[in-house]
Amino acid sequence: MNFKAIALATTLALSPLMAQAAPSDLPTPIIELMPQVKKLTESGKLQLNAEQKKVLKDWMASAPAKRKTIEEEYVKLRQELRMAILNNKDSIEREKLTSALLAKEEELIKMRSLCHRMLVKELTPEQYELVKTAYLSSIN
User: Fold this and answer.
1) pLDDT over 70 at 82, yes or no
2) Is the dihedral of CA 53, 55, 56, 60 positive or negative?
């Protein structure tokens, strides 16, 4: 058996394992404010009024599911690109996958930005500053 045959057999045998998502397959969020909102709310420091609580509850009822869908698509594209590179697919196919992957990452960034925009709109400036300070402390 020659080297190419061994390499091909190994690649085919390991393909399902290599295609699985690695913990690093999702990009690190640009911002992630909701965990801080939850902590500050639970501690009583944020002092949300009834209207703010309803808006945040409604947001949490829909936004995470939408984000998860985009994240799943992102991971799938990343896995496809990984396998295209490993299997020496032509550059046009890899470029298409790269472009699609970058577009999904942009969608994820925009979703985080929408969350930020909602918080700025719904929270008082003082509440937002508490969230921002808590977030910055959590990443340092």
Assistant:
1) yes
2) positive
Nearest to 19 by CA among 76, 90, 102: 76
Residue 76 class from Cβ within 10 Å (0-12 exposed, 13-18 middle, 19+ buried)? Answer: middle
DSSP string across 43-87? TTSS---HHHHHHHHHHHHHHHHHHHHHHHHHHHHHHHHHHHHHT
For the chain, state the CA radius of gyration. 21
Query: Rounded CA gap, 45 and 90, in Å?
Result: 55
Tell whether the model's pLDDT for residue 107 goes beyond 50.
yes
DSSP string, 16-44: HHHHSPPGGGSPPPS---HHHHHHHHHTT
